[in-house]
Design brief:
There is one protein chain. α1 packs antiparallel against α2. The chain is globular. The protein has two helices and two strands. The protein starts with 5 loop residues before the first strand and ends with a helix. The chain is α+β, with helices and mostly antiparallel strands and 74 residues long. The longest helix has 9 residues. A two-stranded antiparallel ribbon has the order 1-2. 24% of the residues lie in helices and 18% in strands.
Length: 74
């Protein structure tokens, strides 16, 4: 298992206005993540603005993704 440099951005809860309890991590790497193909249908490199634009255009996403994207990256 390759360990990549990362940092924890937050531990979010209902008190923060989120639907789920979650830890949000940021990984900075030039390598493509080795994801489990049984859990994901595709992987994309997108800027935070591109993520929001795709969701606004109708792409399916977890409901908290726009909120934490705006909170941490815009």
């Amino acid at each position: 298992v390759t360990k990549l440099p990362h940092r924890e951005l937050a531990y979010l809860t209902h008190k923060d206005g989120f639907h789920l309890f979650m830890k949000v991590f940021e990984i900075i790497s030039d390598e493509t993540p080795n994801h489990n193909p049984d859990d994901f249908t595709e992987a994309l490199w997108l800027t935070p603005q591109e993520v929001l634009e795709r969701i606004e255009a109708g792409d399916t996403a977890k409901p908290d993704i726009p909120t934490f994207t705006k909170r941490f990256y815009l």
